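Before relying on records like the one below, remember that each one covers exactly one chain. Contacts with other chains, cofactors or solvent are not represented anywhere in the record.
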Amino acid sequence: MSHRTSLPQLEGDLFLTDGGIETTLIFHEGLDLPEFAAFVLLDHDNGLNELRRYYEPYVALARERGAGFVLESPTWRANPDWGAKAGYDLKRLAAINLAAIALMHEIRAKYETASSPMVISGNIGPRGDGYDPGKAMSADAAQAYHGWQAELFRDAGADCVSAFTMTNVNEAVGVTPAARDAGMPSVISFTLETDGRLPTGEALCEAIEAVDAATDSAPAYYMINCAHPTHFRDVLEQGSPWAKRLGGLRANSSRRSHAELDNAPELDIGNPTELGEQYGDLLRRFPQITVLGGCCGTDHRHVECISRACRAAA
């Protein structure tokens, strides 16, 4: 069934999502992902089977716990600039984006139950590097650029568009009307440095307030991803209107900075139990957060610990 007109993760129940797909596939499965692009696996049967195996423990965990699940498509790098770097022209890249959502439909049809509703999210990544904003686009340019992918997600039957690892306000502002024009609800997820600020230096509160002001509060909710809880827990203001707009977390397992992670020769998986406890502490302060998963360095073990701790907190 389609959840596009009414996202169930907004109704208060816990929803799980996956962990760090690229780091899992590279470091645990030994796969080659050019340009850190998981979407290349959609190009052949062996790759599709790898993706099915990747999602399986997560959706099985959601069913076991009676939790919902947000199926994020493996398309974080499947935009025109990164696609070109991986050797994909627009026609081939469009087919890849459609195939990604088709795979999410396949998984939902197999695993969704009444107690574990599954939402299909078309995952949009930044035009530039996820750690370095470089020269930010204007909001209008971002809307035109990301609208191409949002329309593909609409045509393939996704429920929403989620923009992850947003490094700057302009791009987040642009994604939101791109999703709206495609008839899709949007989710905006910012990445933060160790000081709790965006890579551009903006405070998280300023970024959320700026996007809401520019879009009439169009995003369904906001998230934080690709940062450790210790990087941002102290900047979240309990009771503030902007913090109440946070609906999800996908934290890194490592306390390292983005620069340190970029130069690390090995994967830092951190401490899954400790990470779960940190999520639980955040959920006690911000009970409106319902979507829980991981980012770089995390896998299904981390999400299991997160689920256990947040069930207790809830």
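The domain at 14-313 is CATH 3.20.20.330 (TIM Barrel).
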